[in-house]
Each structure stands twice: as C-alpha cells, then as structure tokens.
Amino acid sequence: MAAAARTLNISPSAIAQQLHALERELGATLIVRVGRTVRMTEQGGRILNQARQLLRDAAELRRIANDGEVGGELRLGACTTALVGMLPEILARVSGKFPQINVHIRSGNSAQLYAEVEAGNLDAAYVLEAPYLLPKTCDWTMLREELLIVLAPQRLAHRHPHDLLAHEPLIRYDRNQWGGLRAEEYLRKAGIQPHERFELNALNSIAVMVDRGLGVSLVPDWSPPWPEGLDLARLPLPEPCVGRRVGIVWSRATIRMGLLGVLLEESVAANGGAPQAPKRKLSR
Question: Is 54 helix (H, G, I), strand (E, B) or coil?
Fold first, then answer.
C-alpha cells in the first residue's frame, strides 16, 4: 500500500479510499489485512489480469488520440535463443528511437509462445519457425537462419564431419526441440547412425561438454553469447540442409499494429536486413 502511494504520489489513506470505493462498486472484497500485511482475495485475483488489460487499453486509447506519437505497450514473448542472442539489440534500437514504447516480455519455449500469440495473450513473439502451418490469424517473418554445424574439440578439426558423427560419441540436441528435429532429419538423410552418449536441450551446456572431450554434436550455429574459454571447431556440413530459422510471429487481430510495424522494422534491421513484407503461412 505504501509503495503504491509513493508510485502514484498520493497518501496511503487515499489509496485505501480508492480501493474501498472500487470494492463497493464491484460488490466484492479485493484485499484483506493479515497482521501488518495486505493480501489479495480470490475475487481480487480473478479480476487482476482483466484490470491490467484495461490499463493497457487505456494507454492504447491515449496513443490513438495522439496519432503522431509512437508510444504504448507491447506484450512480447521470446524463446531462450532469441531472448539472449537477438532481443537485447532489437530492444536497444526500439528504446533509443521510440522511448514512449513500453515492452513487457514473457519467456517460454516456441510452442508455448505460438499458442499465447494465437490466443491473443501476446502481441508478438520471437520464436523458432514452427514445423506446422500457422492459422490465418497469425503472420510470420524470418529474421535469421542458423545452419547446422558439427561441434567438435579443436583437436578433431581435421576430420570429416560425417566421420565424426558416425564414429565419435554424439551429444545429441534434444529431439523434442525444433532445432533438434532438424539435426535428426540430417542424420537420417545422410544415413548416419550415431553412437549417442547424452541428449539435452541446452546448447551452451552441449558446447561445454564437447570442449571437455565427451563427444561431438550436431547443432544450429547459434548467435553469441557462447560460453567463454572454449576451444571448439565449428565444422560446416558437406550436404545441404535446412537450418534452424528464428523469426517473429504476431497476431493479426492486435490493435497495436502501428507499434508492431516499428518493432518489425527494427527487428529486421538489427539482423542485417532491410524492412520486408510479412510472410504468412497457409492455415492448418
């Protein structure tokens, strides 16, 4: 209560009066005192997300009324790959040019974030390309493709990548990950039956294990940061393959298309490209 009063620059008693007025209007108790603390009731918890949405919509109305000003709130999602290797540069560009844009970020895996965008809980998300067709309500643009490479200790850099995959222990990128599926497809097409040692979903951990001599791996050539102090060879594959594609998916139903246009333009520019028209997959 005291923190809310400081944020709004009013007295704690004024906060209490506003809460009591809201409770009378709604006909429900929203908070209760427990000792010297205050906690939310079940009824308060039920309306919390909707109350936050009302605040976001009010901010959007102000932006629409002042059409010349680029500002408002965006709700974004980001998978780990984008959150670490892509999003900081994009947000630096957006914040530098448009300081009135506020961004709320939710992390998660790509499958979860696609569902959140489709449900309208997120305006957009930085995700891996889905291995299925998207609904018509969503648009997608690729920002970067990370080709598959063989990751090996530097002392094995002279050997052929297929020889390494066939005869050295394999530290497999998790096949439940979409990037891991690409690696599995390549091994199958190349007719390589590896000797698996470990399977995990953390690329940085795979790099450390390879550096320690525990095996080799077939992984996307992901963007920095990488763990420091590693002595690794990153060997290109001799046969063509489809890499892991990272991009942005967004809901066509969002009322924040103006802000998303700014975000898309800066996202493409931050990844070395020029602004491009959105690419949408057919409905599933």
Answer: helix
